[in-house]
Write a structure and sequence with these properties.
heterodimer, A: 3 helical TM bundles of succinate and fumarate reductases, B: 3 helical TM bundles of succinate and fumarate reductases, 5 helices, binds protoporphyrin IX containing FE, Succinate dehydrogenase hydrophobic membrane anchor protein (chain A), membrane (chain A), SuccDH_FuR_B_TM-su (chain A), SQR/QFR_C/D (chain A)
Chain lengths: 150, 143
């Protein structure tokens, strides 16, 4: 949510409203998650595209299997997945609220963002934690080298 | 955010009035507005990339052959250029996000928010050039 002049004399929330201020929680979350996401996403891009010899050309099944054999990278990716989707969807909610004023359409669009984010968060989490780096019957050429010694 | 009376000296430093009546706050007109437009466009673009990216990564569960074929689509020069644009979007959004946080938190940063925008642009350009020097040979080098 983009704030206007910080000294705006008319706060967005009336003082007699009860309960947690969800918009304020969202505002704080955007900042906290943003700072963590910098580390996770820059680390992701640096490791996959710069540090690894060959960069983009080196990304294959074997590369991913090598990473996800290590819980460190599994957790890295899953935390990045959750934070990026929650941050991104909350941001999309702000954008939709800014441009769509017809209540029905607005609800449908925000619903679509929430459903897409929820489905992909669950899919990505399941994929990462149930991953098998050495699937039976696969061409050994395509698997990480440690599969041969199993 | 509500700011108490005692810290409201900033209000006196709203940019000078301009011909354009829309200018006049931290966010409207000039650098403040461009940073906001770019922040919004890059945020939306990264969101849509992420939707596709989690799906392409999920293909690792289909089979090694299918994953390698799908990810192969990222390895041609056109996509290589797209990856530079994507990295540029991420780097700008991230650095500008830090600028927004700083400008909201510290009055000192609010006062120099215009220059901070150019600092963000400069750092983003440096990082993207550095990335390209490493990335372009990788894209062009056959595997
Ligand atoms: C890399 C670290 C990131 C940082 C430091 C960051 C920072 C921020 C901040 C501070 C805001 C709030 C702006 C405001 O309240 O005015 C924001 C908004 C937003 N972010 Fe991020 N972000 C990051 C990554 C991402 C990612 C990965 C996505 C997409 C999945 C994303 C999508 C968005 C969107 C759509 C908005 C709303 C833009 C608007 O309201 O105009 N951001 N970001
Ligand atoms: C061209 C740039 C990119 C490439 C080549 C790339 C490549 C990959 C690869 C190979 C994986 C598999 C696992 C791993 O390596 O850790 C992955 C996973 C992931 N990437 Fe990227 N990535 C890129 C950009 C991004 C960006 C900008 C984001 C954030 C907005 C992102 C977010 C993720 C997430 C959340 C996962 C984990 C998915 C899961 O656990 O199911 N990636 N990426």
């Amino acid at each position: 949510m983009t704030i206007d002049n910080p000294n705006y004399a008319y706060p967005a929330r009336s003082s007699n409203r009860k309960g947690p201020n969800l918009d304020k929680i969202g505002w704080v979350f955007m900042r906290a998650s943003g700072v963590v996401l910098i580390v996770l996403i820059f680390g992701h891009l640096f490791y996959n595209l710069i540090w690894t010899e060959g960069g983009i050309q080196a990304i294959t099944f074997g590369f991913v299997a090598g990473k996800w054999a290590d819980p460190f990278w599994m957790w890295w990716d899953v935390i990045m997945l959750w934070l990026a989707f929650i941050h991104g969807s909350n941001g999309m909610r702000t954008v939709i609220n800014d441009y769509v004023h017809k209540e029905g359409i607005r609800k449908v669009l925000i619903g679509a963002v929430v459903v897409a984010a929820a489905v992909l968060i669950i899919l990505g989490t399941l994929i990462t934690f149930t991953f098998d780096p050495c699937p039976a019957g696969a061409d050994p050429e395509l698997l990480p080298s440690f599969c041969a010694t199993l | 955010m509500r700011v108490s009376q005692s810290t409201s000296s900033l209000a006196d430093e709203t940019p000078k009035p301009s011909k354009n009546r829309i200018a006049g706050t931290v966010y409207r007109g000039n650098e403040g507005m461009w940073s906001w437009v770019l922040h919004r466009i890059t945020g939306i673009a990264i969101f849509f990339f992420l939707l596709v990216h989690v799906l392409d990564t999920a293909v690792v569960r289909v089979s090694p052959e299918v994953y390698n074929a799908v990810i192969g689509a990222y390895k041609n020069p056109i996509m290589g250029f797209g990856e530079i644009v994507l990295v540029g979007a991420v780097v700008f959004h991230a650095l500008n996000g830090l600028r927004i946080i700083a400008v909201d938190m510290w009055p000192a940063a609010t006062k120099i928010q215009r220059s901070l925008f150019w600092v963000v642009i400069a750092l983003a350009v440096i990082l993207v050039v550095g990335f390209s020097i490493r990335h372009i040979p990788n894209v062009l080098g056959a595997h």
